[in-house]
Design a protein that fits this description.
- The protein is mainly beta and about 80 residues long.
- It contains one helix and three strands, in the order αβββ.
- The chain has a domain of about 40 residues.
- A three-stranded antiparallel sheet has the order 1-2-3, with no helix packed on it.
- β2 and β3 form a beta hairpin.
Length: about 80
């Protein structure tokens, strides 16, 4: 597993348009990138990252904040390459 930390407080501070105090995040992960969409595109944060293609594990860690998830959904997409 490859570990990397991002400043999530900076991410949520950048979203000014909360709906009922909530932020909807969508995260797309590929072998070389991580893209974060906040509140259906009001915030977009692309990040270079390197993930091991043979390690499908997912870890989510929150520090110095209180987070409540209404739901968490993970979908694995098939490769477009044969």
């Amino acid at each position: 597993m490859v570990s990397r930390s991002w400043n999530w407080s900076a991410l949520t501070a950048g979203i000014r348009c909360r709906v009922n105090g909530k932020v909807r995040l969508q995260v797309l992960v590929d072998c070389t990138s991580l893209e974060i969409f906040g509140n259906d595109g009001l915030l977009y944060m692309p990040m270079a990252a390197k993930f091991a293609p043979d390690d499908p594990s997912l870890v989510l860690t929150v520090s110095d904040a209180t987070v409540h998830f209404d739901s968490l959904e993970v979908n694995e997409l098939r490769s477009i390459w044969p």
